[in-house]
Amino acid sequence: MSEKIIAFIVHFVTHVISLGGYAGIVALMGINSACIPLPSELIMPFSGYLVYLGRFSLIGVAAAGTVGSNLGSALAYWIGARGGRPLVERYGKWVLMSHRDLERMNWFFGKYGSITVLLARMMPVAQSFIAFPAGIARMPRLRFHVYTSIGSFAWYLCLAYAGMKLGVAWHTDPRFQAAFHRFHLGVEVALVAGIAWFVWSHLRRGRLAEAALVNERDAVSAANETE
What we know:
Helix content is 84%, strand content 0%. By secondary structure, the protein is mainly α. The longest helix is centred in the last third of the chain and has 53 residues, at 174-226.
């Protein structure tokens, strides 16, 4: 992520929160949870900085973030539940998702959905997108929002507390921006590695399936010739 993009995001986040107060936090975290990765690692520490200044309360900031997270997630969940499965079944091959992958995802969310949502709410990038697959898998909505609330509140409270403790350094110390840049660079590298593994494994599986089909056809042809 370039320094200009970071500077733009910082300006946008601080401007919205400064003007909108708690409502601004709700709006930003709603965007973050609706499959638009606006970094909570900027939103909540700056909100904590305003706690340090006495403008907000720490619990109020975490609660506002949690409300926004649920609102944005509700939209992404609804899109996934209403149109996600047909979309994946029709166009999934273009993103290397098969019907088998869809069934595995449904099974996974049925068995591990709660802990997956809880942990994803505490992870950069993942927190922005977790609602969509949860909707496709039709994870029980009440359970989804309960674990979204628990994970979001805990994570946002920690981020806001860090911003409060950093105090004025959050806004003035360039080392904070450098640390944020390194943190997100690490997340982006991990994300790219995960995507590369996903593509490689699915292409390999496709080649193996195709080879098995060819072998099966050859065997049938040989059997027919023998007869």
